[in-house]
Amino acid sequence: MPSILKQLSNLIAASVDQIDAACEAQGLQFPSLDEPFSPESEGARHIPDVLKAIDIIVVAANQLIATAQPPISSAIDFSNRLFTAAVLHAVNEANIAEIVREGGPKGLHVSEIANKSGLDADRIGRLLRLLATNYVFKEVSPDVFSHNRISALLDTGKSLETLKKDPIGKHDGTTGFSAIIGGTLDQGLACGGVLLETLQDPKFGHSQEPNEAVSNKAYNTTLQAFEFLELPGNEARFRRLGVAMDGSSRMHPPDTLLKGFSFATLPENGLVVDVAGGLGSVSLVIAKAYPKLNIIVEDRPQVMIEAEKFWMSNLPKALNTNRVRLVGIDMFAAQPEVSNKPDLFILRQILHDWSDLYAHKILKHLRDAAGLNTRLLIAESVLSYACEQSSDEVAIKGAKLPALPAPLLPNVGGANALTCFKDIAMMMLQNGQERTLLQYANLLKSAGWELKEVRRPVGSGHGHLTAVPI
Q1: Which of 89, 147, 352, 464 does the annotation list as catalytic?
Q2: Is 147 noted as a catalytic residue in this protein?
Q3: What predicted TM-score, i.e. pTM, was given to this entire model?
């Protein structure tokens, strides 16, 4: 029998062959790490067979490294990731990506980057070299750096002069990728240092309250995270969050939500309510695909101000004809009265912000406003155990995960690590959490809903859970 190392390397080789064959059949080239990033160049990664093969490569490669590398090296690598995150944060906040862009493929010398950024040339070189060693940026010659496919995501596309004039609006009008990265680093680095202290706190360590979380200790505030962002002085963070939420929808093919639920089964002129929908980027996709549906986008009043700008830029007719309405709400209060019972409630990446105590309140208010035929669509990352699924979970329609070839972890290991990272991030933010399917089923049942089905559209990264009133 082949060794574990050989089994893993064989899986990687076979998956690469699968990607090459799929790309050749579609007449596409798999993008190089050295090529500039653009959404259009990601076409190969939207092919279902390619996405499946990428998962195998990522989990097998991570497991191969963990198996082959001395355990002490792996442990030290884990501990050193803190430095990589800190360096990435510094580079992102200092607008280095926008400066490097000016050098094009030939790159810029650290002295030129220093002149434009006001930072020390030697230290910039050391920061960028650490990132380039981890495949973020490219050192084209000694102390000369250019963008690669990953580092380009940090670039807002704006000039350095524009960013200096309007630092608060750095991410406005961008893809949102830099906003996602910036927000993650900002929160993670601030909260990571007080995680243990919070876990050991007799009160905070067991609390489900959103204002008794790791972030409250990190930022020395008694406010919930979203209330904290609305304070004077946090304008840049607040606006970055809105852009990041929009950007998160760009991380996956735009039609994945449409594959997660049968929207065609909704009645003509049916009502869809996008609860805590942010700017309404998800509703925009629905509005374009199903022009005979009516949509209400709900969120905090402050968010609705930005949402109106978003819709007037992207689909003004829907707003002007009242087919799409923007409503300021409090999620923890009763739903606003509408003339007809909603046909569908959507909660996309909302419940993970909240502990079970508060998620139950949201779901209960939706249940109280639901009609007999109302359905609830939850689009969230679904946690998988790093072991075989339980029989109770497999019993849910669509829940059974495809079997992976040995010796891979059943939950796709490193290819699924983002969900585990998000789970910790939600805990630190305001005692929220990602959940397993059984945790969702139990939570829904407690609020008067029954989980009927889960769909996992290829490339989505989310489970799409459909529930009905009990």
Answers
A1: 352
A2: no
A3: 0.88
